Write a sequence for this structure.
């Protein structure tokens, strides 16, 4: 109920709340208006600054074009008179201030005098040649970066001498004006809110607080038991209605109290007249009510019962069980529980009681009391205990029977397995009907292979009235070893002749069966494929088998009574045979490889095992020798050894053999300090011959190269084929004079190149090939195989760069270059992970209507230290190292995400396709196609939005496999374009086989198409070929109107190049797509 203090508080709180709410609302509206006004003024300032700076840019550019640099400076100083311009400066590409509004800044580095200058925006403007305006929220500045050309050179479409006009505009004065207006309006509106709150305070006192006080006093009287109340309020109709309701409530409470007293009398009569024990127990387990029957069950007087609680009367061993059940009921998991338990009676007697306990809760859900019903089950429980003891005795007897016992009831449900059947026969007991027996317990007939049918099972037959005696059958067994048993079964019939079920017993005869089997096996074991020879203790041959005759050529009659020396080859000395005799005497057996002689005098190897047989007195009575011919096995092992260490094509040692030799020589050189060398010979342009003329020609060429290189090898040289077209020569350490060693190695390398000089004749055709050689010496250059191979490979790489057909020794600068390449590798891998890469799009435009039909997707690396890195500097390395795959998949994934966002907008994506360059390594990667499918599914981008650009080299690597992969991708809607066509082995024959959609004319042909007649013929031929194959044609690198006119004349479909647009970031590309694209000189 409300107190006077609470009513006073309510009278003050409501007006205060309204006033605060009004203040917050007004403040929010004013703030929103202030922010909107601020944004509008900033937009006006931005527009004004752009117009002024654009005008200044035009004036200065005209002055620079005319060569009047002083006039350009005067323009800058004139525009700098505006007080809001904090700074106005022209920055050169070297980041020096050429002109500024403050003369002292001239020729200074921009960062030393303009701390707010952003180098990244400066670089972006230089790269994209577009003005950039940014707002510095922290310092309330508007900053502008505008490109200004310092003048064009001859034949330049765009100046390479680009400066940046930098401007700072102060926004502080603008902010102060807006916020002054905000506070002026706020004070006026808040005063109006205060007056409204005072008026509300007077109204609440009269119309609300007084009626509430009257109602509170009436409610207090009802709470004290005075139900004769009458409240009448005239202040308002609502409070009058509330008063009448309170009057009716008091009358209803008085009627309910009378009815409750009558129910209490009836409940007491019911409780005492019950035939089972009943009680009401409080949550603390003390009695609230109980009847006389419960006292009779527990043999207590009511006064004695009240002295103990419910748990004190419960047997100690059952208390914890009931506590756990009570916890579940109290927690609300159960409504009630039933429990058979023991209870302690007067005189230390124990009775068994079945109790059912239910929890009664208050309206709030809190436990109020427990209702308990208790029934005496002592007699029933004693009978159950006696029956359980008899059952335990029966089970003990049954489980100690060695044979397995199984019992089923009259319905065939299994009811009993004894322990022997479960533990020794591997059968776990389950109550199963007959139709499930064989499913869980597979049983076989005596042969151990034929499954038994249900009707054949002894227990099933007994269930149907048949008696079975000693039927042999097989269980699978607990250890997966079959168990052979003799099964017997009988029906179970009671004294009245009624069928109760069936019983079966199983006697294990596995050992007996195995003994019989071993006797049979012993009779035939002698005729195995291994030779067997039995001698007496004096080494006289008693018996041999047929395999002995097949291996040695001697019949049984020829060797019986002879010594095994008849097989002696003379290959072993006396010590060898003494070792055999010693092993037989000490260990009782010997085994090993021995060389013997056949009857035809042929010497052969055999693996022999000799076992000494002893009697019960531990005396040797016989020797049993078994052996097998190792001739074929040793031949196979020799062949395996040859295949493991020698190249199957050339017969030279392979990489594995070379590595072992290299390891050995490096270790040896560390102690001898003799200088050796490792030479790697790589055939120049071998891949071209192999791809164009076929692998058969390539393999024959490799074999002839191996033969020629072998001619200059000496005894201490190792010539190996490392793989592909690489050969490696290892020179063992031969001199302590490093200069002499280098001279000798150089002469050998020259000899190797001379061997490759003469043409190779294959199938009547001459083939010319050269080689590049990389050399590293050891142990001074490198003292381990891994570093030595790396250094020789680095030298080979330098030889390739030097023009091929040359020799290159490893030097320290090569190591530095390798370190730089490793750093680039690590940085590029990190760039892919941290998304330092950004996508650029170069439009592909239709000349007919000026619409952007497609775009080539390009990647740039935004390095945190070096700024934007050109793809020329990292794409080739990515292709070398395999990083091109994760890089290429990142490009496809990022591009599809951007297209997805674009298509999701109301305007949609107007570009038909996006071309992505696919490297050979990426294309042939096993995960390429599944990952492309996954990207398309995740981004919901249709496959026809993608155009994969592949090179001619990729196609020639494996034409059949390439076509198969392309067809799989085309099923997704993806289209294909041949990139840089004409720069490789362009051929109409392979173009016909490829599922292509587009052909791109390489930029190298477009550059000289107006100045070189041969280039014109090539371009015309490529366009004609594409038309013949019904392919679209895209011209790459269009930069002049003359090139465009030539291509339009020859009906080229699409054009791409700086003449239309440079590669653009995503946002600018979208803006560019929204309007008709015109050449730069027409904009």
């Amino acid at each position: 109920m409300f107190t006077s203090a609470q009513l006073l508080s309510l009278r003050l709180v409501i007006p205060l709340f309204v006033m605060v709410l009004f203040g917050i609302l007004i403040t929010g509206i004013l703030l929103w208006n202030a922010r909107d006004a601020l944004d509008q003024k900033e937009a006006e300032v931005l527009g004004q600054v752009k117009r002024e700076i654009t005008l200044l840019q035009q004036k200065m550019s005209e002055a620079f074009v005319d060569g009047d640099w002083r006039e350009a400076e005067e323009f800058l100083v004139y525009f700098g008179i505006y007080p809001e311009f904090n700074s106005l400066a022209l920055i050169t590409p070297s980041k020096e201030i050429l002109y500024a509004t403050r003369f002292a800044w001239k020729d200074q580095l921009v960062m030393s005098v303009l701390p707010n200058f952003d180098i990244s925006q400066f670089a972006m403007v230089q790269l994209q040649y577009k003005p950039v305006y940014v707002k510095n929220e922290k310092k309330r500045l508007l900053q502008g970066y505008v490109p200004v050309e310092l003048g064009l050179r001859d034949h330049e479409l765009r100046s390479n001498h680009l400066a940046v006009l930098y401007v700072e505009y102060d926004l502080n004065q603008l902010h102060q004006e807006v916020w002054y207006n905000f506070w002026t309006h706020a004070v006026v509106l808040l005063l109006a809110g205060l007056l409204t709150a005072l008026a509300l305070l007077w109204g609440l006192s009269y119309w609300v607080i007084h009626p509430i006080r009257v109602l509170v006093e009436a409610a207090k009287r009802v709470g004290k038991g005075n139900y004769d109340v009458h409240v009448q309020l005239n202040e308002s109709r609502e409070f009058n209605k509330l008063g009448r309701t309170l009057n009716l409530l008091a009358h209803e409470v008085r009627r309910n109290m009378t009815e409750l007293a009558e129910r209490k009398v009836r409940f007491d009569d019911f409780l005492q007249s019950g035939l089972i024990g009943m009680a009401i127990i409080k949550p603390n387990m003390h009695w609230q009510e109980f009847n006389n029957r419960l006292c009779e069950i527990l043999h207590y007087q009511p006064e004695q019962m009240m002295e103990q609680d419910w748990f004190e009367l419960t047997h100690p061993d059952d208390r914890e069980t009931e506590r756990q059940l009570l916890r579940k009921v109290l927690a609300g998991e159960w409504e009630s529980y039933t429990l058979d338990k023991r209870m302690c009676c007067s005189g230390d007697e124990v009775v068994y009681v079945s109790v059912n306990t239910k929890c009664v809760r208050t309206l709030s859900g809190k436990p109020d009391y427990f209702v308990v019903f208790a029934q005496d089950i002592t007699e029933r429980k004693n009978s159950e205990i006696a029956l359980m003891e008899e059952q335990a005795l029966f089970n003990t007897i049954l489980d100690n029977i060695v044979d397995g016992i199984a019992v089923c009831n009259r319905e065939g449900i299994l009811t009993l397995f004894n322990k022997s059947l479960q533990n020794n026969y591997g059968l776990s007991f389950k109550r199963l009907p007959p139709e499930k027996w064989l499913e869980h317990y597979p049983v076989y007939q005596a042969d151990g292979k034929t499954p038994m049918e249900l009707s054949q099972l002894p227990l099933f037959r007994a269930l149907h009235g048949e008696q079975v005696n000693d039927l042999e059958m097989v269980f699978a067994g607990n250890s997966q070893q079959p168990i052979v048993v003799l099964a017997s079964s009988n029906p179970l019939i009671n004294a009245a002749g009624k069928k109760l079920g069936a019983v079966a017993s199983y006697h294990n005869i596995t050992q007996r069966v195995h003994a019989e089997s071993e006797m049979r096996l012993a009779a035939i074991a002698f005729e195995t494929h291994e030779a067997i020879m039995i001698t007496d203790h004096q080494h006289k041959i008693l018996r041999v088998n047929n395999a002995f005759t097949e291996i040695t050529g001697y019949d049984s009659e020829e060797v019986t009574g002879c010594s095994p020396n008849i097989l002696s080859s003379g290959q072993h000395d006396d010590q060898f045979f003494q070792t055999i005799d010693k092993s037989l005497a000490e260990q009782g057996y010997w085994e090993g490889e021995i060389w013997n002689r056949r009857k035809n005098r042929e010497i052969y190897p055999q693996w022999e095992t000799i076992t000494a047989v002893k009697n019960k007195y531990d005396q040797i009575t016989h020797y049993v020798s078994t052996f097998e011919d190792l001739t074929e096995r040793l031949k196979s092992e020799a062949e395996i050894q040859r295949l493991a260490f020698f190249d199957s094509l050339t017969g030279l040692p392979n990489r594995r053999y070379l590595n072992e030799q290299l390891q050995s020589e490096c270790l040896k050189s560390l102690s001898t300090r003799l200088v050796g060398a490792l030479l790697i010979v790589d055939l120049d342009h071998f891949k071209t011959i192999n791809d164009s003329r076929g692998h058969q020609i390539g393999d024959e060429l490799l074999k002839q190269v191996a033969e020629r290189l072998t001619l200059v090898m000496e005894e201490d040289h190792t010539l190996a084929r490392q793989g592909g077209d690489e050969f490696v020569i290892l020179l063992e350490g031969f001199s302590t004079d490093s200069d002499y060693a280098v001279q000798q190695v150089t002469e050998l390398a020259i000899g190797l190149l001379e061997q490759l000089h003469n043409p190779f004749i294959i199938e009547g055709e001459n083939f010319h090939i050269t080689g590049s050689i990389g050399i590293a010496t050891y142990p001074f250059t490198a003292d381990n195989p891994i570093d030595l191979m790396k250094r020789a490979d680095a030298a080979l790489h330098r030889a390739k760069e030097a023009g091929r057909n040359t020799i290159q020794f490893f030097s320290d600068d090569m190591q530095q270059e390798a370190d730089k390449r490793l750093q680039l590798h690590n940085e590029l891998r990190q760039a892919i992970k941290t998304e330092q890469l950004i996508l650029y799009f170069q439009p592909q435009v239709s000349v007919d209507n000026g619409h952007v039909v497609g775009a080539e997707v390009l990647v740039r690396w935004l390095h945190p230290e070096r700024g934007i890195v050109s793809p020329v500097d990292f794409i080739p390395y990515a292709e070398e190292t395999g990083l091109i795959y994760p890089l290429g998949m990142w490009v496809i994934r990022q591009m599809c995400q951007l297209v997805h966002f674009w298509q999701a907008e109301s305007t949609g994506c107007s570009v038909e396709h996006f071309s992505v360059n696919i490297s050979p390594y990426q294309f042939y990667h096993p995960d390429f196609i599944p990952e492309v499918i996954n990207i398309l599914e995740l981004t919901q981008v249709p496959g026809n939005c993608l155009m994969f650009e592949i090179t001619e080299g990729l196609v020639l690597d494996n034409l059949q496999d390439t076509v198969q992969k392309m067809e799989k991708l085309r099923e997704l809607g993806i289209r294909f374009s041949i990139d840089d066509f004409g720069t490789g082995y362009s051929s109409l024959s392979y173009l016909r086989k490829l599922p292509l959609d587009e052909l791109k004319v390489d930029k190298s042909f477009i550059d000289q198409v107006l100045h070189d007649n041969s280039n014109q013929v090539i371009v015309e031929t490529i366009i004609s070929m594409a038309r013949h194959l019904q392919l679209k044609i895209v011209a790459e690198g269009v930069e002049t109107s003359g090139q465009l006119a030539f291509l339009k004349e020859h009906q080229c479909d699409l054009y791409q190049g700086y003449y239309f647009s440079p590669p653009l970031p995503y946002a600018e590309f979208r803006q560019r797509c929204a309007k008709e694209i015109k050449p730069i000189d027409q904009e």
Summary: The CA atoms of residues 963 and 994 lie 6 Å apart. The first helix runs from residue 4 to 66.
